[in-house]
């Protein structure tokens, strides 16, 4: 019986990484849908800049979703691919019908802060597993999300 996956990592060591990647995938998918709703429904004097910003964010997140799902496959598992599966494990709550820009922006900051903690946990697990590609995925996500938290937090200070 093989004890390593196709990329040469020990299956028993990489299983916690796969589980965390699946959690991140579920949370990314819910966050993506929330961002689409904020993009569509935002109203008021901040409409133009936030409408464009949220589109940028969800387009970038769509790429991250694909990277996470593909990493799960590379590690030898099948990623979840239905919203019923995502909603069972996601800690990011669905948000709908948000029109107030402050509520939407605050939700984005809070979600990004949560996702940062998830990515930092992925980093710890990937280091333990010797999984450099998942380490890289976590590091790039942290760098991207920290900047978004910084920018939106400053924006909210008005």
What does this structure look like?
34% of the residues are buried. The protein has one domain (11-156): Up-down Bundle (Ferritin), CATH 1.20.1260. The protein has helices at 11-41, 47-74, 83-89, 101-129, 132-156. Helices cover 76% and strands 0% of the residues. The mean pLDDT is 95. The chain contains 5 helices and no strands. Helix 1 (11-41) runs antiparallel to helix 4 (101-129), helix 2 (47-74) runs antiparallel to helix 5 and helix 4 packs antiparallel against helix 5 (132-156). By secondary structure, the protein is mainly alpha-helical.
Task: Provide a compact summary of the structure.
With 158 residues, the protein is an all-alpha fold.
Structural topology:
Elements: H1 11-41, H2 47-74, H3 83-89, H4 101-129, H5 132-156
Helix pairs in contact: 1-2, 1-3, 1-4, 2-5, 4-5
Please name the fourth-level CATH homologous superfamily.
Ferritin, core subunit, four-helix bundle
Low-confidence stretches: none
- Tell me the β content: under 5%
Distance between the first and last residues' Cα: 60 Å
Q: Sheet bearing the most strands, described?
A: none
- Gyration radius (Cα, Å) is 17 Å
Q: Remind me, CATH topology?
A: Ferritin
Task: State the shape.
Answer: elongated
What series of H and E elements makes up the topology?
A: HHHHH
Q: In which range does the helix fraction lie? A: over 70%
The CATH architecture name reads: Up-down Bundle
Structure annotation, total helices: 5
Kindly state the number of beta strands.
Answer: 0
Q: CATH top level? A: Mainly Alpha
What class do helices, strands and sheet pairing give?
mainly alpha
* Number of structural domains: 1
């Amino acid at each position: 019986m093989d004890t390593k996956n196709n990329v040469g990592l020990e299956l028993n060591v990489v299983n916690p990484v796969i589980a965390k990647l699946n959690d991140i995938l579920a949370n990314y998918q819910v966050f993506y849908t929330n961002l689409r709703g904020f993009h569509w429904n935002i109203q008021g004097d901040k409409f133009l800049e936030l409408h464009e910003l949220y589109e940028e964010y969800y387009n970038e997140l769509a790429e991250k979703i694909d990277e996470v799902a593909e990493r799960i496959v590379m590690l030898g598992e099948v990623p979840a691919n239905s919203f019923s599966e995502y909603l069972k494990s996601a800690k990011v709550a669905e948000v709908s019908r948000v029109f107030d820009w402050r509520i939407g922006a605050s939700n984005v900051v809070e979600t990004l802060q949560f996702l940062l903690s998830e990515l930092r946990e992925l980093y710890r697990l990937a280091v333990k597993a010797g999984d450099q590609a998942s380490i890289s995925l976590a590091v790039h996500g942290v760098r991207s999300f920290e900047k978004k938290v910084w920018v939106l937090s400053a924006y909210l200070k008005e």
